[in-house]
Every structure is written in C-alpha cells, then in structure tokens.
Amino acid sequence: MNKQPVEKKILEVRKTFKERFGDTDGLRFFAAPGRVNLIGEHIDYCGGLVFPAALTLDTVVAIRKNGTPSTVRLAATTIDGIRTFDVKDIEAARSLDWGNYQAGVVRELLALGIEVGGFDACYLSSVPFGAGLSSSASIEVSTGLAVSKLFGGKLSGAELALAGQRAENTFCGVNCGIMDQFASAMGKKDHAILLNCGTLEYKYVPLDLGDNVLILANTCKKHALGASKYNERRREVAEGLAEMQRIERSRGVSEPHKTLCEYSVAELREYMCEISDPTVMMRVIHVVTENARVKEAVKVLEAGKLDEFGELLRKANNSIRYLYEATGSELDAMFDAAVSFDGCVGARMTGGGFGGCTVNIVNASRVAEFEEYVGTRYTAATGNVPEFYVCETGDGARELLI
Ligand code: GLA
Description:
Elements: H1 6-21, E1 28-37, E2 49-50, E3 52-65, E4 71-76, E5 79-86, H2 100-111, E6 119-125, H3 135-150, H4 157-171, H5 179-186, E7 191-196, E8 202-206, E9 212-218, H6 230-250, H7 265-271, H8 278-302, H9 306-323, H10 329-339, E10 344-350, E11 357-363, H11 367-382, E12 387-391, E13 398-400
Parallel strand pairs: 4-6
Antiparallel strand pairs: 1-3, 1-13, 2-7, 3-6, 4-5, 7-8, 9-11, 9-12, 10-11
Bound molecules: alpha-D-galactopyranose.
C-alpha cells in the first residue's frame, strides 16, 4: 500500500502543478480517500445497511483560482498536458478523455448555488484505478470539497457525498449508490461506518481487529463499472422490488415497503417463491439477507467475536458470488485461495465486483506467508499476477494544512 506521507504527496502534486501552470501562488491542498467495504455489498441502492471504512489511499488535489471568470484547467501527475473546460458550457466537457468526474461535480456545485469561477487544479491519486476501491468517488469528493471551499460554499459531508453521487449518475453514466462517496467524505481513522443508505443515518464503529490486519488482494483485473453488469443489476433489483410489492399487495397490504431492504428475512421467505423470474428471485434473496448480515456483523464485531465476523464475511461472499453473480473467475480464485489459508479469519470480494479486490482479515504475523500462499494459487488459476496491500483506515475528505 502507498505509505507516502502526506507531506511528500503535497510536494509531488505541487511540483506537477508548477510544471503545468507556471507558479504555485495561492495554492491550497485537499484530499479525499478511497474506501474498502467490509460487508453490505450491492445494497446501498436498495436502501440497505453498508459497512465501509475510508483508506489512507487517497486523491490529493492542489487548487487555486486562476483569475478567469469561468475557465477550468485540470492536470494530473500521471496524465500529460492540461484538460480545459468552461464552467458556462459544462456539457462540452463530456467529450474530454479525462476530467469528466470533475466537470460533473462542478455542475452539481453550480446547481447548489455555489458561484464557481475559473480555477486550476492538479491531481495526485494513490487509489488504484478500477480496483473496486472507489478511485472515482475520491476524485469526486476531493473536487467537491476543494472547489466548494475555494468559492465560498459550505457543504456538509453528506451534501458533498450526494453531489459526487449525482455527478457520477448523471454525468459519468454509472448508476451507483451513495456508499463510496459517503465513506470518502465522512471516513474516520480506525473506524468503519455503519451507514443506512435509505436514511443516511450513520454511526462510527471502532475497527478493532485484535492481532489481525486487513489485506486487500487486487486481482489486477480491472472492473469497468459502466461497461459491466452494474447497471443491469440495478434494473434487476428494481424489478425485484416491484415483484415483492405486487406480492405484498396480493396479500392485502395497501402500502407495501418502499425499498427492498425494508423487507425482513421472514417476509422474504413468505414472498420469494412467487417471484416469477428466477434470476430476479436470486437477486432479491441476496439483497434482503445481506442487509440482515450487516446488522449481525456489526453486532459480533462490537462484541469482539472476530471469528463470527469472519464467518459472516465468507457467507456474504458466497451470496454475492452465487446469488448476485457479481464476482467472476478472478475474484473467485482469489477468495478460494484465501479461505484455504489457515490463518485467514475472513475474506470476501469488496466493491462493485466483476474484478477488483478481495478484503482479507489475516493474522499480522503471517502477512508475507498469506501473500505468498494466495498469490501462487491465484496466478496458477488465472495466469494473472496479483498485488497485495496491507490496508490502513484513514480520515475522510479534508483540507491539508501545511
Ligand atoms: C460500487 C458503487 C457503490 C456500491 C458498490 C457495491 O462501488 O459505486 O455505490 O453499489 O459498487 O456495493
């Protein structure tokens, strides 16, 4: 994992800023992290409970006003040149090869009444792209915080998260839920966030893993959320909700539940066999049982029962693998290798799926052994070389004061 101290990140992004934009007068620095989701997968858009933690991997942005009324100039340490768009014609930014997350966020800030003018910004990201660790949310949230602060906006963490989500939904074509942006905006070091995505109520839960650490195992198969099955799953669960409501009404209930996660496991058992499409039925079973698993997982974690927490992670993985079918051969090979390692307390895929990472709870003294064991088996099964990061939790979006 990228252990670069924050001072080094600031120096690096400042250097690139100077190379691209000439000087660094009036520069401010902001950061927003990626996240790992511990349990509660693919249910944020069903009003469910999720349990993510912000990472120390983050996107750092160096930013200042550039004195123009509406010209935005963007750069990044890993991308050549400068991308430009005009605040008065954000639609034109859709054709940029890079910079549309930022443009989408600026559009949302304008809609919130923030008078965004011209600015220059340079990005440095340590969140691996396409690894299911919310690199896009970290760009959206860091941009939202930086630009709103620069132009006098005062947004709460939740408002920042919602603006980022709307940008991704309407400007970038991914119909994502609120989990990633919320974790990026609101994360807290050494804690995970139990978030009710239906109400946005949340609580911080200390992430006490005893002698164990979290290891992220990257399949190095990039997931492409937009192009993948993500939006298809959203359509399937919308159909699932309509089916459950129909069945509920047929039982004489005049006001059925409004989201899938409001259904209890008992109600699921009663209604599910009447869902006509078997695929939709599997998706609904995943959503309702996953929501129940999150409640249970937080309870056992708070009680210090780490083995039970790990067991729930494994069950959650099987549900997303066999019922929600959002994993794929790479994630499956990584998971299978991890759970056959005797020092692994729990493992599951994390994030949108179809590639990306698994998250593993492993005894701190056996990290190297785990990586060797799982890496060898994963490569033998898939031909890919994985990457491992021992993961630290960190704080949510903030200004970096030097
Ligand atoms: C992606 C989305 C989130 C969430 C997860 C799956 O990360 O951005 O909103 O749906 O997938 O839990």
